[in-house]
Amino acid sequence: MSRPAAPRTTHAGRALPWAISVVGAVALIGCFADDRQPGGVATFLPTIENARPAARPAPGGMVWIPGGEFSMGAAEPADSEDAVGAQAVVDSRPVHRVSVDGFWMDRTEVTNDQFAAFVKATGYVTVAERTPQPGDFPGAPPELLVAGALVFSPPDHAVPLDNELQWWRYVKGANWRHPSGADSTIAGKGSHPVVQVAYADAAAYVKWAGKRLPTETEWELAARGGLSGRLYPWGDELTPDGRQMTNRHHGHFPDDDAGSDGYAGIAPVGQFPPNGYGLVDVAGNVWEWVSDWYRADYYAALPQNQVACSPRGPSSSYDPDEPAVAKRVHRGGSFLCTDQYCSRYMVGTRGKGEVSTGTNHLGFRAVLAPQER
Questions:
Q1: Can you state the angle between helices 199-208 and 112-122, rounded to 10 degrees?
Q2: pLDDT digit of tens for each residue in the chain (373 aa)?
C-alpha cells in the first residue's frame, strides 16, 4: 500500500499517502575488462554472445537467451533540448560492461489466463485483495484502510505535468481481477498481461511455475536482442518507416490517448514485432518487475574498468526521492510512456516501485536457467 511517487519516477510508486516506509554490497565477480575510451568516457561496445546453444528445447512459452557480454545502461539523448530523455537516463549511467550466462525467458508478459491458473491451483490472494492492517499504517484514517490499488485515472482536460496525483487514484476494489476498480473485469481479456500485482505476487507466481524473476541485467540483455547501444529493442528509430513497434501513449498526456498504435490503454500480449531474440513487449504495454533492489546510484557505484559477472543488484534499496521506501526495479515502460513525460520505452532506462504496490500498468515475466530446470 502506498502513494504515487514524485513525477520524476515516471509511474506510480506508493499507494497510500501516509505510508512511510548504505550503498548495498554489490553481488558481482571480478571479470576484468576495459570498458572505457581514452579519457574515461563510457561507451557502448559490441555484444558478444555466448556460442554455446541451449542444452535442451525451450520450455513452453519461453525462448532461449544466449547470454554473453554486453554494454548495459542508457545513452545520453542526442538532442540536448530533450529534457524528458535526459531525465530518463540519470540513474542509468554510466554505461558499463556486464556478462551473464544463457537462460530461457518468457516470450510474453504473464497473462491473465496464466495467473488465473496459478490462483486456481493455489488459492493465492494478492496483496491488492488484502485489507491493509492499521498496525502497518499508523495514523491512517480507517475509511482508507480498504483493499484496493492504484489506477490510472486521466483527467478530461490538460493539466501541468508536475503532480501525478492528478492522474493516479487509489481505488477500492482494484486488483488483478478488476484492474480499474470493482466495476471493471478481465472477462474476455485472458491474453492481456496480468496487472495490479505487487512484487510478492509476482514472486509467488514464478515460484509456483518453477521459474524466477529475471535480474535487471538478464532483463536488459534479453530486451536488447543482440543489439548494442540502440535506443529501442529494434533500433534507433521509434517508428521505422512509420511502423508502430510498441504500445505507448499517443496524443496529449495524460488526458488524451489517441490510440494511434491500435490500442488506447493496455493491449493483448504479442501485438507488436518481436526483438532479435523473439521476445515481445519488452518496450511499452506494461512495466515488468525484476528481482533487483532499486538504487539510483547503483551503476555509479560499480567498479570501473571491469566486467560485472552475473550481478544480482545491490543488497538494499535507496531512492533519494523516498529514502525510507523499499523499492524494486521496473523495466520496459508501459502504455503510458510518452516523450512528453516518460520516455522509458528506451531499452536502457529504469523504473522503480514500492514492493507492495501494484498498478494497472505493471506486470512481469519469468526466466529459467538450465541448471534451475
A1: 80
A2: 443 333 333 444 445 432 323 223 233 333 544 443 333 335 899 999 999 888 889 999 999 999 999 999 998 777 666 778 778 889 999 999 999 999 999 999 999 999 999 999 999 999 999 998 888 777 777 877 899 999 988 888 988 888 888 889 999 999 999 999 999 999 999 999 999 999 999 999 999 999 999 999 999 999 999 999 999 999 999 999 999 999 999 999 888 999 999 999 999 999 999 999 999 999 999 999 999 999 999 999 998 789 999 999 999 999 999 999 999 999 999 999 998 888 889 999 999 999 999 999 999 999 999 988 7
3-state DSSP call for residue 289?
strand
Tally of CB atoms within 10 A around 275: 24
Please report, to the nearest 10 degrees, the dihedral formed by the alpha carbons of residues 99, 210, 116, 198 taken in order.
Answer: -50
Q: 284 by DSSP, 3-state: which? A: strand
120-123's contacts with Cβ under 8 Å and 24+ in sequence apart are 121/208, 122/204, 122/208
Domains located in the chain, CATH noted = 1-373 (3.90.1580.10)
> Are the CB atoms for 180 and 174 separated by under 8 Å?
yes
Q: Which amino acid is at 113?
A: D
Total-model pTM: 0.89
Neighbours of 265 (CB within 10 A): 17
